[in-house]
Design brief:
Radius of gyration: 44 Å
Distance between the termini: 101 Å
Order of helices and strands: HHEEHHHHH
Helix content: over 70%
Number of strands: 2
Number of helices: 7
Strand order of the largest sheet: 1-2
């Protein structure tokens, strides 16, 4: 019988070890014992609050969503920025190609007319100066210097005596003074390939 009494004293009632309404919330008010923060958070003797696993899972999922969303936003922004830079570079390259092409066509025409005539075509020279001014906005100093050299050669040819067909043929053979655009074309090519 004594063993039976010992067994009864070691048994506990199912609700015996739990704290009930003596639990207080973080703000100091007594808990109501009906779940919520007071039921899921248990204070340790050191004042550390232990959270229920469900809260920890929810906070982890929320943090993961925030990090994923932030990563997606930054990636999209960097992608758009790179795309905008590439578009600007392509536009700038196309604009320079057009400017160089137009200058070569206009300068070769003006130089050819200057070799054959003593009357300068003022409109064509002004157009060439306008193109050189456009180059000053974004082209390299070497390219601009070559373009200005073409302008000097064109105005010098206007002031020189007219060339005859045999003289032009002789210039072609020797290569002297017949291709003032060569240096400009090489400078323009180097500039476009460096972009």
């Amino acid at each position: 019988m004594q063993s039976n009494a010992v067994a009864k004293s070691t048994r506990r009632h199912p609700h015996e070890g739990r704290r009930r309404s003596s639990r207080r919330l973080r703000d100091g008010s007594p808990g109501d014992g009906a779940g919520g923060i007071a039921e899921t958070e248990k204070a340790s003797p050191l004042g550390v609050i232990h959270m229920d696993a469900a809260y920890l899972s929810a906070l982890s999922a929320l943090a993961g969503s925030m990090v994923g969303g932030l990563t997606l936003g930054v990636t999209s922004w960097l992608s758009e920025r790179t795309r905008a830079r590439a578009g600007k570079l392509a536009h700038d390259l196309s604009r320079r190609e057009d400017l160089f092409k137009d200058f070569i066509v206009a300068a070769s025409k003006a130089y050819g007319e200057a070799l054959m005539s003593n009357e300068p075509q003022i409109q064509e020279l002004i157009a060439l100066y306008a193109m050189i001014s456009g180059m000053r906005v974004g082209c390299s100093p070497r390219t601009i210097a070559c373009a200005e050299k073409i302008m000097r050669a064109t105005t010098d040819a206007c002031l020189a005596p007219n060339k005859t067909i045999p003289q032009l043929h002789e210039m072609l053979k020797s290569g002297a003074g017949i291709d003032p655009l060569k240096d400009f074309a090489e400078a323009a090519r180097d500039e476009l390939s460096s972009l």
